[in-house]
Structures are given as C-alpha cells and as structure tokens.
Specification:
2 strands, two-stranded antiparallel ribbon, mainly alpha, single chain, 2 helices
Length: 75
Amino acid sequence: MRDEELDALFIKQRSTVDFNERVALFHKISRIVTERVYWMPLWQDKDIWSIHKRLSNVRISGATAFWNVVEWEAK
C-alpha cells in the first residue's frame, strides 16, 4: 500500500535544510504514521567488533559474532 502524502513528505524532508522546517515535517510524518497505524521497521546494528591479532578463524556473522567460536584459535 502506498501513501502518496507520506511519500511526498519524506521526499520533501530530504531537500529541506532549515532545521525547524525539518522538525515540522517529521512531526507531520510521525502524526500520519501514528494515525494510520503504519509500522516501519527500522534496523541499525551498532555492533562494532575488535578482534585481537592473536585470534584466528574468527568470522563475524550478521546475527552474532560468536557463531563459530569453537573454531577460534589463540596464538
């Protein structure tokens, strides 16, 4: 299902540089999403992994960094 009013607001906010106008646009977007009971799944994976140089066979997966922990080796 498409919502042309919502699409237009998202397009407009991309090119709006005035902070207060952008805030007002996102308030409108939020109100429409709430009133029409839209669900917008958002995902932001903030996982940052650091692997010590002594470890080998470490392969990071999208789900978990520990999926192959039994294969890890420490030098």
